[in-house]
Amino acid sequence: MQHILTATGVSKTYRSGFHALKGIDLAIRPGEIFALLGPNGAGKTTLISIVCGIVNASSGRIEVDGHDIVRDYRAARSLIGLVPQELTTDAFESVWNTVSFSRGLFGKPPDPAHIEKVLKALSLWDKKDSKIMALSGGMKRRLMIAKALSHEPRILFLDEPTAGVDVTLRRDMWQLVRELRATGVTIILTTHYIEEAEEMADRIGIINKGELVLVEQKAELMRKLGRKQLTLQLTARLAQVPPALAAYALTLSADGLELTYTYDTQSGRAGIAALLDALSGLGIAFKDLHTTQSSLEDIFVGLIEDNTP
């Protein structure tokens, strides 16, 4: 499969000696939604800034649709739209002029029909003549996306796109991202909201201390690293977990009326069947049971902790 963006051995060391990125290798597929997760200072924004030509890498190579971002900067950058974390706009300019000007910065000829389409898609059309200073925070965030889409990029970087917006607007933004992907735009987003990645992403990348810890299909990541728990509500109180059940590493509740079995999602059925047989053999009955599965947040926290000295 041809990739629309590839990073090979990308590192960044600042003059202070801080290693922001350490040999990042990453390949992004056309038309996917890729979520880059990591704690503050992990290197997410640094990586995006290098791809977008804002920061220079210390070493390594990045290509955008076959264009080297250093040797063929203009062609590479024209394929990229960036929505930064910070809302940086001219407060006294109108929405229409701001988006139109952004298109011109990339050498694209005026295209009022495209600007209209973008503003309508972002629910900004009725604000086209408004001064930016009059917009709400959520509208300003949408305006940043409109600016990034003004020159018809094939890749859209969203750096913390829903930071500081309410839950309703956040879900509207999720829907917008899906619609953009449906038009063929590749979406790469960083986020602190784990549910955002869980809701939207096709693949997940986890970065910590400048190193790419893991890149995986979301569903496969959940399958391989997710843990499930089976909780059994017992009909009679137990004083302790019987020694014969030690192999299952069961947890007994304080009141002695619940047993919890934590198991691997890949071998869960066999383990549960064996556990139920063992319980039956010991005469331990239960009146109800239910299962829970770890979320992407649980997986993320576990991976970060495992990779923290």
TrEMBL record:
Q: Where are the transmembrane segments?
A: none
Residue runs in coiled coils: none
Q: Which InterPro entries match?
A: AAA+_ATPase, ABC_transporter-like_ATP-bd, ABC_transporter-like_CS, ABC_transporter_ATP-binding, P-loop_NTPase
Q: Name one Pfam family in it.
A: ABC_tran
Q: Which GO terms describe its molecular function?
A: ATP binding; ATP hydrolysis activity
Key word ATP-binding present in the record?
yes
In terms of SMART domains, this protein maps to:
AAA
* Protein known as: ABC transporter, ATP-binding protein
Source organism phylogeny: Bacteria, Pseudomonadati, Pseudomonadota, Betaproteobacteria, Burkholderiales
